[in-house]
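Troubleshooting entry. Yesterday's outputs looked truncated, so today I'm pasting the complete records for two proteins to confirm everything comes through intact. If either block looks cut off, that's the bug. Protein one:
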Amino acid sequence: MRRWCILTKVIGFLGGNHYDFISYVGHVLSEMNFQVLLVDYTPLQELMATVPEYVFQKVTEYRDLFYVGAPEITEIKQYMEEETYDFILIDFEYSSKGKEFFLCHSICFVTDMQRHHLEIVENLKIPSNIERFLVVKEESPIRKMSFYLRGMITEMKLQESNYFSCPWGERERKNQMRCQYQYDIPWERTSSSMKQIVWSLVRRWIQYQEKEEIGILHLPTEGMI
């Protein structure tokens, strides 16, 4: 039985190649007994590639999560109105033209440090009433990257507490491959830095205060990267 009663919350994820990150968020929410729908609007259906069998545009249940590829916007609205799911996590990649953003309560940008990717994220037009978060996968950072990121955060009018930096290397790349080739969500193999970021975001999205559940999920009790 669910311990919380909330209206359906829709979280949009923007950026490239982050199907593993969305899977981690969905996994944690599912472990907390939330009903979670993961929606794939990416051109290459990257998120759906983590599911062994599915029918395009039909909801598929796998690993206690629900998945659907490129549904009509009217379907998402219906799920929200009927409160079919507690959370709807939408992977837009860079494909949205903005018309779907109005469905979201929050937007989470997840990107690597390549400048052309950062520029796309920086130039996306997001309605000012939507809360925004930025997760940057840092691999071999150089000094000028820090200056660029600082200016980008200022330009986006992003709160400092909504910015997260995640070390990225061989371990994280292997975990991505496990998502698609082993159809697994390798949460136990995930770095403590990644777990900390996921937990910080989940806590914000559910206004979670109680700590007795944290040990069950093997999550840190406090702190952010």
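Protein two, checking that the full record survives here as well:
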Amino acid sequence: MLAGTDVKRPHIYRIVNASGRPVRIRGVANRKPCCGDVAPVAPTVLAPGQSIEVAVTLHIGLAAGQVVHFAALETEGAGESPVMIRTTALARPRATVEESEAMTTPPYPGESRRVSYAVRSFGTAANPPFSLDDRAIRTEAAAAWLGPASTRVEPETGLIENSRPMALTVTALGDAGSRSTTLEVLDGGVVVARKWLAWEVAQAIRATPAGLIIAADATDPLRVMLRSRDDRPFRILAATTRVEGLAIDPGGDAPAAGHTLTIRIERGPRAAVRSGEILIRTDHPRQPEVKVAAYLAAHPGATASKPDQEPSR
């Protein structure tokens, strides 16, 4: 059966006293009210061979998968156990979204990538599948149908399936890092399927380390290595910082896929600006700026790099 907020399925159970002695019935308890209702049963006594009916209405809801409900016919008497009534159903989703073409490489800032999906809606002759058009889709990404919808019918169950290909185009805006979006399928404004898409915006140039914590008694020069992740040669145009007490030597100006910056520590009066960034400008078309965090510690000790990065020595 198809999932849906208004889908309910009634069931009638006939419980027979096969014990050979009278059984006193106290009533029936709904052990899982989230998944169904149980009609009240008045207290009574069942003679041997007599029976009683218990009515259970299963609530399917929007969630697809197996739905399970429990009710208990409670009895009186020493050693008597309730009669457990288990009602189950397998709910088919009203819609699905399946990835057909994945994002093979992460985009660099400013680039776009496409991911393709097969969007499907399901129904029956009595409850047809909803149309797959622009009203059935909600997403923050750029979405486009790739063709018309097709329909097929399962001969065994009579289930009708509409299927239509779709593509999402995501653009990497801002700095490198994690991004995500969702693709939702709507039936009359109600979300019946949701697909989550996550991706990484790649760094064209990686700085190792990405940050420096410089001890108050540090004197040795520090080095930051820059590497082009797409192997494209680039030049360092400038390297500056507002952190006082640091002098930056960007090295040679010839194009290369890797560069090493030397950061010298110039001791003097107590620095007024002790934290900030080293801003490195490049001519790499995919990453014109690289930022390395820098902090001058107020106490002596070991100079450290940002966690999960290579040491700066």
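Both blocks look complete. Sanity check on protein two: Residues 27 and 251 are 86 Å apart (CA to CA).
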